[in-house]
Design a protein that fits this description.
Strand 4 and strand 5 form a beta hairpin. By secondary structure, this protein is an alpha/beta fold. It is elongated and about 90 Å long. The protein has a six-stranded parallel beta sheet with strand order 3-2-1-12-13-7, with helices on both faces. A four-stranded antiparallel beta sheet has the order 5-4-6-8. It has a domain of 152 residues: Isoleucyl-tRNA Synthetase, Domain 1 (Orthogonal Bundle).
């Protein structure tokens, strides 16, 4: 049987500086979705990468006394390292300096040029190097500051090529009306509809005052405007212009995951370009909120970023991934702090989850010589636990399909809490004292172990290493990653007779 395809992307990240919490946030979210869909049997293609052209990158390289490509290579190595540390399972990493991207991007714009949707004209306006964005005088703050980063803009007058964006306002509105899930969350869709309703202006797609970029194929004295170049990664990364079978297999994308600061590029310019090329639009674009540090947006532009590696060193990669997916509702801004991370770690991971694992394994070792028991007949508590377990997959799937990561984890942790309650109410330590209750002891401890197996399966997309350690403790030989949902979640999958393995606690409490 042919697997259904599932294509998910992150934005590609500027190489003007190294990865930070914001880029890691989007990438971990995409990774969780990709891992879950692989578990569910999809043929997943997960793409991330780097945006390496443009004035901002050229400026950063010059300040470091390096060639732009040399600079990009060094920063890209930091992205590779960061994504490895974060256990990112991307299927490809596209660089806009890759020959495959350059050729595909040139082929795409050539098509639009030949169709008459790209034409030459003179551009006059204000440009922010930091944001790589053109602004009109009415959009500026205090006459000259960029409305995004509050840095000084530069007045530019140069010959450009323009894309007839104004031609696609009504087709875009029609698509949004017919596909209400295209732009999410709803507040972002409303923002885009309002923006389009004001009338679209044609968009510059080239620069002549810059050489660090992709030359236009019909006029090499121009290089592509960096945002046009960058957006095309979503199709060049799956073969556009060189591998038609692969491109047709995976396009359109199910999800573009982005930050809300790049909403207009992805929900106005990008879909208009696709319409002009006669290509399908992505199914969904989801713009998540900002990470806030002491109430201020965390961004490279503001200089208040935190390196993911610093938090991973303190909390471990699984706790890092859990915290950012659990603490913040994905579509909203969210505050992050060391204090809240410690509190979440100790409450959810050490107390609730880690304690359940350690005491269950310890009781099986102590009372049953470490062997997974054969359960006996169920009583009311057992049936209640199984009923809750049976609802977990559909609930988790629905929440992850809508990128509601926090609620997905909240639902699983409700089950963790119920298993802890089941242990307390069943009191295996008392059952072990009564020889006549040995069958009941075996049933209770089997149900605890089986619950842990189900939890490991559902939490694995969020915390791969911790769940694989738990999987090994349960004595299961088949790799966790090879399990398929929902079949693997059927109750009773843990084979009696296997031997559990006692190990160090998954999440030792943090006392700082």
């Amino acid at each position: 049987m042919v697997k259904p395809t599932y294509y998910v992307t992150t934005p590609i990240y500027y190489v003007n500086s190294v990865p930070h919490l914001g880029s890691a946030y989007t990438t971990v979210a995409a990774d969780v979705l990709a891992r879950f869909k692989r578990q569910c049997g999809y043929d997943v293609f997960f793409l991330t990468g780097t945006d390496e052209h443009g004035q901002k990158v050229a400026k950063a390289a010059a300040e470091a006394g390096k060639d732009p490509k040399e600079w990009a290579d060094e920063v890209v190595s930091q992205f590779y390292k960061a994504w490895d540390e974060l256990l990112i399972s991307n299927d490809d990493f596209i660089r806009t300096t890759d020959e495959r991207h350059i050729a595909g991007a040139q082929a795409f714009l050539q098509k639009l040029y030949e169709a008459g949707d790209i034409y030459p004209d003179t551009y006059e306006g204000w440009y922010c190097v930091q944001c790589e964005t053109f602004w009109t005088p009415t959009q500026l703050v205090d006459a000259s500051l960029c409305p995004e980063c509050r840095r000084e803009t530069t007045f530019i007058k140069e010959e450009n090529y323009f894309f007839r964006l104004s031609k696609y306002g009504e087709p875009l509105l029609e698509h949004i009306r017919k596909n209400p899930g295209f732009i999410q969350p709803n507040v972002r869709r409303n923002e885009i509809v309002s923006f389009i309703d004001q009338g679209l202006k044609d968009q510059s797609v080239s620069r002549t005052t810059l050489t660090w970029g992709i030359p236009l194929p019909w006029d090499p004295s121009h290089v592509m405007y960096v945002w046009v170049d960058a957006l095309l990664n979503y199709i060049t990364g799956i073969g556009y212009g060189r591998d038609a079978a692969k491109f047709e297999k995976y396009w359109p994308a199910q999800w573009h995951l982005i930050g809300k600061d790049i909403l207009r590029f992805h929900c106005v310019i990008w879909p208009a370009m696709l319409l002009a090329a006669g290509l399908p639009l992505p199914e969904h674009v989801f713009a998540h909120g900002f990470l806030l540090a002491e109430g201020e947006r965390m961004s490279k532009s503001k200089g208040n970023v935190i390196a993911p590696s610093d938090l991973i060193a303190k909390f471990g990669v699984d706790a890092y991934r859990y915290y950012f997916m659990r603490e913040i509702s994905f579509g909203q801004d969210g505050s992050v702090s060391m204090e809240s991370m410690i509190a979440r770690f100790n409450a959810d991971l050490s107390n609730d989850f880690g304690n359940l694992v350690s005491r269950t394994i310890a009781m099986v070792v102590k009372y049953l010589d470490g062997v997974v028991p054969q359960p006996g007949p169920d009583d009311g508590l057992d049936l209640e636990l199984k009923e809750l377990a049976g609802a977990l997959f559909s609930q988790t799937e629905a929440r992850l399909d809508s990128l509601n990561y926090s609620e997905a984890l909240s639902g699983i942790w409700e089950f963790v809490g119920r298993v802890n309650s089941y242990v307390d109410r069943s009191a295996p330590w008392d059952l072990a004292k009564e020889g006549a209750l040995e069958e009941r002891l075996r049933t209770v401890l089997y149900n605890c172990l089986e619950s842990l197996r189900l939890i490991a399966l559902l939490v694995w997309p969020f915390m791969p290493q911790a769940c694989e350690r738990l999987w090994a403790q349960l004595g299961i030989e088949e790799p966790l990653e090879a399990q398929r949902l929902p079949e693997a979640l059927s109750w009773g999958g843990l084979a009696p007779g296997a031997r559990v393995r006692k190990a160090e606690g998954l999440f030792p409490r943090i006392y700082e």
